[in-house]
């Protein structure tokens, strides 16, 4: 039975690596896969999913407002695929997540989405919120904070290493960097932890 999957994580947990490995496993068994990534993410050049450990693969792109049911149906009409992989799934709109749910239910093809759960302010991305609501199965791609605890949060830093607590949810092409932290160290970095509780 086809399912909608949401593999969520914080930044730099290696979710693109996990996606590429899973897609590779299909292809190694002569089953084709269809890869999608957000058009606004140009870290790897247009139309490519790349991981920080150096592996990558060509991918089609989804854009804001695009009907993904039609896009996938058109792709499947040309060539059947065993599975659909979506990277940067936090950038899907709620409507696009529903499109993918219809792909699973009506076209009976599994869709595996990989994305960030929360932004640098600790708020759910709308696409991730809809995936948390609709996914048949969810899995966490884990990474750790500098203290060794599981990292679930992310801070945005400017080029001086200062934590930024305000700004747009999605910022493209700036000099900011992201650091994944456990919630306690996220609270410390964003000034929410009382000084006496800090370490
Ligand atoms: Zn920590």
UniProtKB/TrEMBL annotation:
<protein>
    <recommendedName>
        <fullName>Thymidine kinase</fullName>
        <ecNumber>2.7.1.21</ecNumber>
    </recommendedName>
</protein>
<keyword id="KW-0237">DNA synthesis</keyword>
<feature type="binding site">
    <location>
        <position position="182"/>
    </location>
    <ligand>
        <name>Zn(2+)</name>
    </ligand>
</feature>
<feature type="binding site">
    <location>
        <position position="145"/>
    </location>
    <ligand>
        <name>Zn(2+)</name>
    </ligand>
</feature>
<comment type="similarity">
    <text>Belongs to the thymidine kinase family.</text>
</comment>
<dbReference type="InterPro" id="IPR020633">
    <property type="entry name" value="Thymidine_kinase_CS"/>
</dbReference>
<dbReference type="InterPro" id="IPR027417">
    <property type="entry name" value="P-loop_NTPase"/>
</dbReference>
<feature type="active site" description="Proton acceptor">
    <location>
        <position position="88"/>
    </location>
</feature>
<feature type="binding site">
    <location>
        <position position="185"/>
    </location>
    <ligand>
        <name>Zn(2+)</name>
    </ligand>
</feature>
<dbReference type="Pfam" id="PF00265">
    <property type="entry name" value="TK"/>
</dbReference>
<feature type="binding site">
    <location>
        <begin position="87"/>
        <end position="90"/>
    </location>
    <ligand>
        <name>ATP</name>
    </ligand>
</feature>
<keyword id="KW-0479">Metal-binding</keyword>
<keyword id="KW-0862">Zinc</keyword>
<keyword id="KW-0963">Cytoplasm</keyword>
<keyword id="KW-0418">Kinase</keyword>
<comment type="subunit">
    <text>Homotetramer.</text>
</comment>
<keyword id="KW-0067">ATP-binding</keyword>
<dbReference type="GO" id="GO:0004797">
    <property type="term" value="F:thymidine kinase activity"/>
</dbReference>
<keyword id="KW-0547">Nucleotide-binding</keyword>
<feature type="binding site">
    <location>
        <begin position="9"/>
        <end position="16"/>
    </location>
    <ligand>
        <name>ATP</name>
    </ligand>
</feature>
<dbReference type="InterPro" id="IPR001267">
    <property type="entry name" value="Thymidine_kinase"/>
</dbReference>
<keyword id="KW-0808">Transferase</keyword>
<feature type="binding site">
    <location>
        <position position="147"/>
    </location>
    <ligand>
        <name>Zn(2+)</name>
    </ligand>
</feature>
């Amino acid at each position: 039975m086809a399912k909608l999957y949401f593999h969520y994580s914080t930044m730099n947990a290696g979710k693109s690596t996990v996606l590429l490995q899973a897609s590779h496993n299909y292809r190694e068994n002569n089953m084709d896969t269809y890869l999608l990534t957000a058009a606004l993410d140009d870290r790897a050049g247009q139309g490519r999913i790349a991981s920080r450990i150096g592996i990558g693969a060509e991918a089609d792109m989804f854009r804001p407002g695009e009907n993904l049911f039609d896009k996938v149906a058109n792709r499947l009409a040309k060539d059947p695929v065993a599975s659909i992989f979506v990277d940067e799934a936090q950038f899907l709109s709620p409507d696009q997540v529903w499109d993918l749910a219809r792909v699973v239910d009506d076209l009976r093809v599994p869709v595996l989405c990989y994305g960030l759960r929360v932004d640098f302010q600790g708020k759910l991305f709308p696409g991730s919120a809809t995936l948390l609501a609709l996914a048949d199965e969810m899995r966490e791609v884990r990474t750790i904070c500098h203290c060794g605890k599981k990292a679930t949060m992310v801070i945005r830093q400017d080029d001086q290493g200062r934590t930024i607590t305000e700004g747009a949810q999605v910022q493209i092409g700036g000099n900011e960097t992201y650091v994944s932290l456990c919630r306690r160290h996220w609270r410390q970095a964003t000034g929410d932890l009382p000084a006496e509780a800090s370490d």
